[in-house]
Amino acid sequence: MAAPAVLLAMSAIAVAQPASAVPDEVIVVSAARTAQARDSAAVPVAVLDAQTIRTVGAQHIAELLNRAPGVYVHRGNGAEHLTAIRSPVLSAGAGAGSFLYLEDGISLRAPAFANINGLFEAVDELAGRVEIIRGPGGAVYGSNALHGLVNVITPDPALSSRRAELELGSYGRIRVTASASGSTRLGDGFIGLSARSEDGWRDDASLFRAGLQTRLDWGQGATRWSLRASAIHLEQETATFVNGFEAYRDEALSRRNANPEAFRDARAFRVSLHADHTLSERWSLSGAVYARSNDMDFRLHFLPSRALEFTGHDSIGAQSALTRQTSQGSLTIGADGEWTRGYLIEDQTLASFGEFPQGVHYDYDVEALTGAVFAMGRHTLTEALEIEGGARLETTRFDYTNNTDDGATGRFLRLSDRSDSFTTFAPHAGLVWRFADNWRAFARAARGVRAPQTDELYRLQPGQEIDNIEPEALDSLEAGLRLSRPDGLALELTAFTMVKRNVFFRDADGINVTDGRTTHEGMEIEGVWPVTATLTFSGALIWAIHKYDFDRPVSQAFEVIERGNRVDTAPEWLWNLRASWQPVDAVRLEAEWVHVGEYFADAANDAVYAGHHLVNLRGAMQVREGVELFASLRNAANTRYAERADFAFGGYRYFPGEPRTVSVGVRVRG
What's the pLDDT score for residue 617? Predict the structure, then answer.
């Protein structure tokens, strides 16, 4: 307990380089699939680098991502989560398909087979860095890059290193990571292993999650090759909502699990071969071929049936891009393609009751074929002004096969075999103006798109139809300022307004709504201020208003949607502020203040969650060359709060937040 006690005594916060160091230019790859300076991109990209990943030592990826502006990831139980990026926290199918989760630019899942908890398939503990685009993803990304995307990037194997970590913490937490990289006979290689186990602070809520990642880079003539593979294994016993107004304030009640039978077991494997080939001084060709396999067994604990769900899909795909560089800019044209075969089985083992018959509810296969072409370019108009733009045309065809009886049984509708196709068009345009030393202004107009997910198309209830369903489209306008000074002071201010059409969600009657409309506007601030050579303040803040722009009467009056209502689970204010102190080279300390503002817990705007504040403390000390001790104290004030507040079926329900927790560890570098 000594290290956390020292942290509690410190009033300073976050890990950063001393102010005297001139920061290197930050290079990102997510905005255009190629390396470019972040400050020169019209697309707003937040970067969480390797040092930040190590400092946070996230027990859940939400801890890491919520440091970025415009991002609010609700932590569920175990590895579960709900995501918001310039959006409300979206659930069900809307949440699954509104954000694109990538590894090295390739989607973790086939877009039409997205999982609302899809980030558990990322090997984030081993990542070299994480890049986050807020708002539509641009021409190089297709369906699901609607509100934003998260790109988890593997470490560069050319950076020779060896690292091992062991961390122990409250509630039986054990985390182990080990990695090695450097030159080999075959090229520059990286291999990493991570494993995490915990008993869970709630009843019947244990977790085991392991990840493996490898990468090999080599050159052959004018071509650079990179072979990469990742695997994830998850075993989770799931604790569910606690019910009753402000039930999260009662610690004994918060620990209870009303569904001890709930679980989630999942596996994911990905392999990809990337290539960059120089054709001439001006022309280059890049691309990747890849394969993925995902499967999951899941108890539908939130339904009266308590049915078992078995899902999975296998994919192969390719990406390609041809780029011409000139003295005034660049032009890229490309084509992407992917084939996926997936399945879903839902089986109820309980005896039949009401609308829930015993036996198979759904059993179907879906083949999906996606093809896309895109073009994007960048041009320097003057020494201070650059413009960029592009567009993507994408089409997806689904071939659905029903493996059980057609028609309705209870509350389940099984369609007969059919085919469906959807086409989307996503343009964007932007500019960056360097109007003074260290200052840039930027603006962008973009459209994000989201084709329907297979769950939304083929997992239906009687009375629902899909013949008129349209892809979601989000039109976005944003503008901002960037300051980046040699002394390390950096600031980015962005204002945005967005309109989303053909919004798909499930209303209080359990009916799929496919013609909704919502509006989103707000402002984001991200900054770093080196106050002295040893003390740095940093953080991110967002103010945003998300509203329904349509009326939806339902039989359950408490969930009637009226135009102008705030979208539920959408705090107006969010911030993550940090101070870091490095009094000597061997000691680093961080304090973090997290604020989640008040928000409505229902669509009718009658139920409210008051919001919360959290303080987290972290520190590390190098005890000898290559050996570092680190510790953290999460929720230092032992605040009673809710990770997620919801109002459903006539009452409040919550995912309670963890009380104060302690962890200590050792990191060895070679």
Answer: 98
Report, in angstroms and rounded to the nearest whole number, the Rg of the chain calculated over CA atoms: 24
For residues 634 and 649, what is the distance between their CA atoms, to the nearest angstrom? 33
529: helix, strand or coil: strand
Q: What is the pLDDT of residues 619-634, one digit of tens each?
A: 999 999 999 999 999 9
Q: Are 8 and 636 in contact (CB under 8 A)?
A: yes
Q: Strand pairing of 148-153 and 99-103?
A: parallel
Q: Please tell me the distance from the alpha carbon of residue 581 to that of residue 147, in angstroms, as a whole number.
A: 35
| DSSP codes, 481-533 | EEEE-TTS-EEEEEEEEEEEEEEEEE-TTSPEEEEEEEEEEEEEEEEEEE-SS
Per-residue pLDDT at 572 exceeds 80: yes
Contact 459, 362 (CB under 8 A): yes
Contacts of 417 (CB under 8 A, 6+ apart): 400, 401, 402
112-138, pLDDT tens digit by residue?
Answer: 999 989 999 999 999 999 999 999 987
Q: What is the DSSP letter of 552?
A: B
According to DSSP, the β-strands at 472-484 and 329-348 are: unpaired
What six digits make up the tokens of 240?
A: 């569910």
**Could you give the residue ranges of the DSSP H alpha helices within 200-265?**
251-255
| Two tokens, residue 75 | 């932590």
Q: Are 179 and 190 in contact (CB under 8 A)?
A: yes
Asked whether 156 and 163 are in contact (CB, 8 A), the reply is: no
Question: If 0-12 CB within 10 Å is exposed, 13-18 middle and 19+ buried, where does residue 18 land?
Answer: middle
Question: Measuring CA to CA, which residue among 537, 513, 507 is closest to residue 525?
Answer: 537
Average per-residue pLDDT in the chain? 92
Chain segment 44-89, per-residue pLDDT in tens: 899 999 999 999 999 999 999 999 999 999 998 899 999 999 999 9
pLDDT at 510: 63
pLDDT, tens digit (0-9, with 9 covering 90-100), for 378-408: 999 999 999 999 999 999 999 999 999 999 9
Assess whether pLDDT exceeds 80 at residue 360.
yes
Query: What whole-number distance in Å separates Cα of residue 139 and Cα of residue 447?
Result: 9
Residues 187, 163 contacting (CB under 8 angstroms): no
Is 90 exceeded by the pLDDT of residue 107? yes
CA atoms of 433 and 210, how far apart (whole Å) = 45
DSSP 453: P
Under 8 Å between Cβ of 466 and 422: no
Architecture of the domain made up of 2-669: Beta Barrel (2.40)
What are the structure tokens assigned to 398, written together?
């689904």
Helix or strand or coil: residue 333? strand
Identify the band that residue 552 occupies on the pLDDT scale cut at 50, 70 and 90.
confident
Question: Residue 474 corresponds to which amino acid?
Answer: L
Classify 247 as helix, strand or coil: helix
Q: Return the closest-CA partner of residue 411 out of 310, 504, 303, 513.
A: 303
3-state secondary structure of 56: helix
Q: What angle do CA 46, 645, 259 make, to 5 degrees?
A: 110
Copy the structure tokens of residue 518. Answer: 């919502």
Amino acid at residue number 113: F
Quote the strand ranges of 403-438, DSSP E.
407-409, 412-414, 418-436
